[in-house]
């Protein structure tokens, strides 16, 4: 809905467009002034602003709502914030939620807050554009964190915001929380966003630095830069280094999930599996539609919206040779009985944790011999990766185990220019022609979680209990690949599971979704 539909058309007096007539503004020889240009966004406004109307629309509302409840996550975020101030000491750390992003002129994309902000605040879903979490060492004990959450609480019924502000107004975006309600829910003291500037500047200097999470909210970063400058803190490279270190720490602290996060991952995976089940039920409809891939995407995404916040990333519904395009998200192709369809999809639940699962399914319900051959090779690579994944192994070992199987398969097919062993050597790597992506990535609130972690904390790090990552080998034989036998051209398979490192191995969180060819066939038959 646009901002100006459905408002009572009783008056046009004092509309912003009228008010903005620029008295005395210097006007270029031709064309509108900047003020005139700015006012054009309101050029359709017919909203009444007279006093009688304002009094009328502000009265007669029932304001009883259920009392707010403290969220379970509020028991976990204090330890996260303590770890943060210990890793980035003597610093006031500023975590913006982010800003609304325009889809086109006055219509925005749904809001999804920044991951670090959500992790340290316990907020999720669409909470809250333009808000800011501030974390700093406690004055009494620098190993403990103090936090304050700044946001724009709801305005009263007597405000113009209530009915006239399409970004914040209650009649536009629904009832917004009060300071007290949010404080109760997340267990963090709250203040009005208008108090942010003074709060950020207080005591900043030699003993206390001030840093904003980079890349989230340019206006907050500019405010922090200004306050740093006014208080003698370095700008330029010095400031960038501090901000990058903050981002690195925030990424690395999420490498090992706490108990709340593991439970959320289980929920995200369970919802995702229900999405895959619905997709299988809708495969006949997909086959019947000329854009069957969209039927699959729409089916999965409906489950994601029904059961969660959204999809955790754009759904890949790739039928036939489209499966060879790793990030096929156009999803506008047909789904044919004789093809495989690769579905890579994840439900992001309201806490923002997402699954990331791929299954490659025979549309007919039965694999052909050639499809089965490729599928079994990928499954063997996955099994090898699972076997290598345990505490003490390196993250990179999981990929290496999968690659040994992939290289051996390709050697058997006669595709490698040499032996599998030669291909596996750093100067070879020819097998990667048919699987150019990695086998694993950390998973959590971001599908590619912890992406700013240092190499020694990620790829070269030992696995420890509580880590969650994917195992997702694949083999992709493009339809245009003249090196591969004709019978497998256009066949691409990926099998992707989400695993939790335990005390002695890994738990496959997505094990309820069948992996072997036989189990996939039986499961599909049971759903049809
Ligand atoms: N869906 C993206 C990935 O598997 O990494
Ligand atoms: Mn995936
Ligand atoms: Mn993945």
From TrEMBL:
It comes from the Bacteria. Belongs to the peptidase M24B family. Residues 1-15 have a biased composition (Polar residues). SMART domains: AMP_N (SM01011). Keywords: Aminopeptidase, Hydrolase, Manganese, Metal-binding, Protease. Residues 72-221 form the Aminopeptidase P N-terminal domain. The keyword Hydrolase applies. It holds the Pfam family Peptidase_M24. This is Xaa-Pro aminopeptidase. Residues 1-50 are annotated as: Disordered. InterPro entries: Aminopep_P_N (IPR007865), Creatin/AminoP/Spt16_N (IPR029149), Creatinase/aminopeptidase-like (IPR036005), Pept_M24 (IPR000994), Peptidase_M24B_aminopep-P_CS (IPR001131), X-Pro_dipept-like (IPR052433). It comes from Brachybacterium huguangmaarense. It catalyses: Release of any N-terminal amino acid, including proline, that is linked to proline, even from a dipeptide or tripeptide. Its EC number is 3.4.11.9. Signal peptide: none annotated. GO terms for molecular function: aminopeptidase activity. Its cofactor is Mn(2+).
């Amino acid at each position: 809905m646009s901002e100006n539909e459905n408002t009572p058309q009783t008056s046009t007096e004092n509309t912003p467009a009228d008010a903005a007539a620029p008295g005395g503004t210097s006007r270029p020889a031709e064309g509108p002034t900047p003020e005139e240009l700015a006012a054009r966004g309101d050029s359709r406004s017919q909203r009444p602003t007279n006093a009688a109307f304002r009094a009328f629309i502000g009265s007669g509302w029932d304001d009883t709502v259920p009392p707010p409840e403290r969220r379970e996550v509020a028991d976990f975020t204090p330890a996260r914030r303590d770890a943060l101030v210990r890793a980035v000491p003597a610093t006031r750390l500023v975590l913006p939620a982010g800003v609304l992003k325009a889809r086109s002129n006055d219509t925005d994309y749904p809001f999804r807050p920044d991951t670090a902000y959500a992790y340290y605040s316990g907020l999720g879903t669409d909470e809250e554009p333009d808000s800011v979490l501030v974390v700093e060492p406690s004055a009494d004990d620098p190993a403990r964190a103090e936090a304050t959450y700044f946001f724009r609480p709801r305005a009263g019924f007597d405000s113009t915001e209530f009915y006239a502000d399409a970004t914040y107004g209650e009649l536009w975006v629904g009832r917004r929380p009060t300071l007290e309600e949010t404080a109760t829910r997340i267990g963090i003291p709250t203040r009005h966003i208008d108090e942010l500037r003074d709060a950020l500047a207080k005591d900043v200097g030699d003993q206390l630095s001030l840093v904003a999470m980079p890349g989230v909210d340019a206006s907050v970063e500019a405010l922090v830069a200004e306050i740093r400058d006014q208080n003698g803190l370095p700008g330029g490279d010095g400031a960038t280094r501090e901000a990058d270190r903050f981002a690195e720490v925030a990424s690395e602290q999420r490498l090992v999930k706490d108990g709340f996060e593991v439970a959320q991952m289980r929920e995200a995976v369970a919802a995702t599996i229900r999405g895959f089940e619905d997709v299988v039920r809708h495969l006949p409809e997909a086959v019947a539609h000329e854009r069957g891939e969209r039927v699959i995407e729409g089916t999965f995404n409906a489950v994601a919206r029904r059961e969660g916040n959204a999809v955790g990333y754009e759904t890949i519904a790739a039928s036939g040779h489209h499966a060879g395009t790793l990030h096929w998200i156009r999803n506008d192709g047909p789904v044919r009985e004789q093809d495989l369809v690769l579905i890579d999809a994840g439900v992001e639940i309201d806490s923002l944790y997402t699954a990331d699962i791929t299954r490659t399914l025979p549309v007919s319900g039965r694999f052909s011999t050639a499809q089965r051959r490729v599928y079994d090779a990928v499954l063997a690579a996955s099994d090898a990766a699972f076997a290598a994944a345990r505490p003490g192994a390196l993250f990179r070992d999981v990929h290496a185990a999968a690659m040994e199987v992939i290289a051996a398969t390709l050697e058997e097919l006669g595709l490698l220019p040499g032996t599998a062993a030669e291909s596996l050597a750093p100067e070879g790597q020819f097998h990667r022609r048919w699987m150019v992506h990695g086998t694993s990535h950390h998973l959590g609130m971001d599908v590619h979680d912890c992406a700013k972690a240092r190499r020694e904390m990620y790829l070269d790090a030992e696995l420890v209990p509580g880590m969650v990552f994917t195992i997702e080998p694949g083999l992709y034989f493009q339809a245009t690949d003249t090196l591969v036998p004709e019978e497998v051209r256009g066949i691409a398979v990926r099998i992707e599971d989400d695993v939790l490192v335990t005390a002695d191995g890994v738990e496959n969180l997505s094990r309820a979704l069948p992996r072997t060819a036989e189990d996939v066939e039986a499961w599909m038959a049971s759903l049809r």
